[in-house]
Amino acid sequence: MTTALLAIQALHGGHGRSQVLRGIDLQVGPGEIVALLGSNGAGKSTLNNTVCGIVPAWSGQIRFDGREISRLHYREIVRAGLIQVPEGRRIFPNLSVLDNLLLGSHARAQARRGRNLDQAFATFPRLAQRRAQLAGSLSGGEQQMLAIGRGLMAEPRLLILDEPSLGLSPLLVEELFALIQRLHRDGLALLLVEQNVAQSLEIADRAYVMENGSIRFSGRPAELLASDSLRQAYLGL
Fold this sequence. Notes:
37% of the residues lie in helices and 27% in strands. The chain is α/β, with parallel strands linked by helices.
């Protein structure tokens, strides 16, 4: 792999005095889709929030484009182009679709807000039709579109998608993974954090399996699927 865009080394962290992350090593290269897999409680969301500066790291290194970011404020991390679409979407239900999207460019890419808004509406035509509608009145699938569109408004260099398919119908899941592949073809690096193992492995360049705050496997999807013990122990396949 070329020089990593995101490089995490020996990362420890958690909440209060409760340790969650135990020596995480993980890399995402430019333009890669990397799948981070694991069951509920494995520590995936804590890892995301630590990388993005929402939860403080205890020790270890987080480097983004060669720059150490583990002690930066989350706004500085956003300005660098590392953007997370969080689990549960976290939209602002009492604001319009348009206002939610515009908030995505609050800390980054303000000068190109109009162009990026046009691109978001082209990517998600249903949002264009509902631009004046309150975000809280959207369907679950539309809210996920809005959350991703808001992330794209910041012109991410790396987009972290935390459980994007959660709660979506099978048809919307197919649409979501097709979108992720389009973003990948456009050159965007993505860290895909998912419990939808089969579809994640179909599109990922590399995969990590996380359990109890540690990485248990890293490699190509084909290597993971070729191991009966790994499939049964960690993926339920």
